[in-house]
Write the C-alpha cells for this entry.
Amino acid sequence: MSKKVLLSSKEIQIILHRLACQLLENHTDFKDTVLIGLQPRGTYLAKRLTTILTQEYGVKDINLGSLDITFYRDDFRRGDKTLEASKTHINFLVEDKKVVFIDDVLYTGRSIRSALTAIQSFGRPAEIELLTLIDRRFSRHLPIQPNYRGRQVDAINEEKVQVLWQENDGQDIVYLINE
Amino acid sequence: MSELSVNHLLGIKYLNKNDINLIFETADHFKEVINRSIKKVPSLRDITIANIFFENSTRTKLSFELAEKRLSADVINFSASQSSVKKGETLIDTVNNILSMKVDMVVMRHPNPGAGVFLSKHVKAAIVNAGDGAHEHPTQALLDSYSIREKLGDVGGKNVVIVGDILHSRVALSNILALKLQGANVKVCGPKTLIPKHIESLGVTVETDLRKALNWCDVANMLRVQNERMDISYFPTTREYTQQFGVNKALLESLNKEIVIMHPGPINRGVEITSDVADSNQSIILDQVENGVAVRMAVIYLLASKIK
C-alpha cells in the first residue's frame, strides 16, 4: 500500500478560503441559500466553510444542515454489509431556496444522485449546486459535475482518496492511497 | 456491529444486546423520517413482503403494513379467515405458494407457539414473528423498550413491572427477555392464577400487591386481560380483578413518585386501567404506537439488507 499526500493542511486552508469566496460571489448574503453537508464526511467541510463565511466574511445566519442519504442509495443489498445510517438534521424549509450540497469527494456521482432524491422530502428547492473538495475526474457513472471544486485529481479506480479533518482525525490532510 | 446476528426475527430469545442497540439506533433515523412531510424512503423498492395473519390483529397489522410502505416495499396481505387455509391447506403449502410469487419476507402471526421457527426451517424467506400464540411478540417488546428508552433515556437499571395476565401473554414473555437483556429490573404482578409457575427462572420477581409493585417501579406495563385465551375461570369476576389489579387515577396519585404507564393495546378501558389514566400525561400509550412504526421499519430494513 502506498500513500501520497494530495493536499497539505496549508493547501486545504487556501482552498477552503477560495471556495468560501466563490460561494460568497454567487450567494452574497445567503438569505435564500442553504448549505447541506452530506453525511457522513461532507458535514466537516460544510461546517468549516460556514465558520469561514461567518467569522471572516461577516455573513450572518447561514442555514446549515446535514443530509443522510443511506435510505436513498441504489446499492442496498448489493454490498456485503448493511448500510449504516447517520443523522439528518435539516430544521428549515428548502422550498424555493438555493441549495448547495457539500461533500468531500466526488467519485461516481451516485451519492449525489441519492442526495438529489433525498432532498425532495424537504421541499422543492429553487436550484441545487454542488461543492466538493476533491473531484475525481474520469470516474463518473452519472452525468453529474460540481459547481465548485477544490482540487481535481486523476485517480484510477484502484486508488482511494482519503480526506482527514482536524476535528475528527487530528489533522487536515488529503491522501491518495494505492492499495 | 452494523449488522444483525440473525436472519429472521423469531423472538427476543434469539437476539443479543448489540442487535437491540442496532435496531434502536436505526429506529431513531426512521422516526425522523416518519416525522417529515414526505414520510417515505425508497430503500426497499425491490423487496416484496407478505403479511400473513392467522389470527386477528388491528394495530400490529396496520403498523407492519405502514412500516413496509414507508420503506417502499411491495406489500401483499393475507388473512386466514378468507383463504384456502379454511379448505385444509397446511402452513408450509400456504406459505410456499405465496413465496412462489417471488416474496422475500414473511411477517406472520399464528395461534401456535413456534410457528415462526417452524416456518423459518422450511421456507426460503426472512421471517418476522408478529406474535405466535402465547409465546413471543418480539416487535412489541422492542417498541416497548424503545419507548422506555425515549422517555427515560435508558432501559438499563430501570424498574419495570408487568401487570396482569402474564400466563397468556406473548407480550409479557418477549418484554421480560428484552428488558433483562438490557439490564432492567423486572417484576411481574397479577393474580396468582395468571402467573406461570417457575417464572422466577427468567430472572424476574413476583408481586401480588399492586400498590407495592407500583411504588417500586419506574414503568408499569399494563397488559390486557385476554378473555379469548381463557378456557377456565382464572379470577372470580372482572370487577374483582379491577379492584385488585386495575390502575386508576387515585391510586397513581397516592404513590410516592410519578411513574410511566404503558399498555400494548387494545385497552379494556375500566378493567386494567381507567380512561383518565390511559389519557393522562403519565401514559405513553400513543407514543408506543408511533414508535411501533419506526421500530418495525428498522427491523424490516435490517433483515432485508441480509437477503442476498
